[in-house]
Specification:
Elements lengths: L1 H19 L2 E8 L6 H11 L4 E5 L1 H6 L1 H9 L3 E4 L12 H19 L5 E2 L8 H11 L2 E2 L15 H11 L4 E6 L2 H16 L2 E3 L2 H8 L1
Parallel strand pairs: 1-2, 1-6, 1-7, 2-3, 4-5
Helix pairs in contact: 2-8, 4-5, 5-6, 7-8
């Protein structure tokens, strides 16, 4: 009887572990690449066998093409965050297209692939503009549902790490930036989240897993 009880508990544990293994989360980084800092983030991701998506600024990508190559070589996804970080909702459509297309070219020159995803600066886009971009450029906007506000001064390494550990969820998309404190926070948070059954994937992989 005790043995049967043991087997029952063991089976529940296995089911629980399998369920945990299905949890997927996408780390996303805006505004890079940045010298040294982006490379610091890449090192943390590599140490933890974690994949991520980098929404780059074309102006920074043009300045640091070698870092873009490193992001791609490490198996991460490159996506578009505009060229100069304007509010895409407040400029003419022609300028929006120029911002996105010029950045797409920089990314495609590295990956050889069409750029599908973009994130509007400040998360500002609007439904009409969103549909215009999709129709004319075939691009999908990507927002987020987890945000530790790592750009704020009060959000130090410990706060960011604690926020991620406590607020991560299945199918989550995390908004982060290329900051050194963020890299340090990830060094704490990623192992903890992996022990909870999270798998770190790109935005593309996350979307495919939902289909």
């Amino acid at each position: 009887m005790k043995f049967l009880k043991f087997l029952f508990i063991l089976s529940l544990t296995c089911v629980s572990l399998l369920a945990q293994g299905t949890k997927k989360i996408a780390l996303t980084f805006d505004d890079g690449p940045k010298a040294k800092i982006t490379e610091e983030i890449l090192e943390v991701l590599k140490e933890n066998d974690a994949k991520a998506t980098f929404f780059i600024l074309g102006s920074n990508g043009k300045r640091y093409p070698k870092i873009l190559e490193k992001i791609h070589e490490d198996g991460h996804q490159l996506a578009n965050h505009s060229y100069n970080h304007p509010n895409l909702r407040k400029i003419p459509l022609a300028e929006v297209k120029k911002e996105l297309e010029s950045t797409n070219k920089i990314i495609t020159d590295v990956t050889g692939e069409k750029v599908v995803y973009f994130r509007p600066p400040y998360g500002s886009l609007g439904q009409v503009r969103k549909e215009e971009v999709k129709k004319q450029l075939g691009m999908e906007s990507v927002m987020w549902n987890i945000c530790p506000k790592d750009w704020e001064k009060k959000s130090d390494t410990d706060y960011i790490a604690k926020f991620l550990i406590e607020n991560s969820k299945d199918n989550g998309i995390v908004l982060l930036h290329d900051h050194s404190k963020t890299a340090k926070a990830l060094k704490i948070a990623i192992p903890q989240l992996k022990s909870q059954g999270f798998e770190f994937v790109t935005v593309e992989e996350l979307n495919k897993s939902k289909k």
